User: Fold this.
Amino acid sequence: MKWFRKAAEHGDADAQNSLGYSYQTGIGIAQDATEAVRWFTLAAEHRFPRAWANLAICHANGYGVPKDVVESYAWWNLASTEMERAARSRDDLERLMSPAQVSAAQRRAKMSPVTSKGTTQGRNSAIKITHPSQHGD
Assistant:
């Protein structure tokens, strides 16, 4: 765990995501939802697709952040640009949402600073990255 933390603290997105997962599951470290979301968010800022998917799961379940299907959908939408299974998860979630929620999630995705910071061509969706402290948790 010591080396994951060192790499994560130095900005390695894979290590940040792995540390978030460790906090989420309690593997090798005390379980802490807020810390999990914090590390997933840092990895997401580095455009790490697995972190986007992990944040979608957190928002869908209210794990470390308020439960928000619109936010979850937007993260799944972003992750779906890189991960086929994320597209399936997004589509499954969409079936549970109202048309207004889907529209709001798609608008949120298009207004993200992630897409304006050098993401790869073809990515046309993302969401605003917020840190857990901005959610009031």
Residues 13-25 form the longest helix (13 residues). Residues 115-137 have pLDDT under 50 and may be disordered. The radius of gyration is 14 Å.
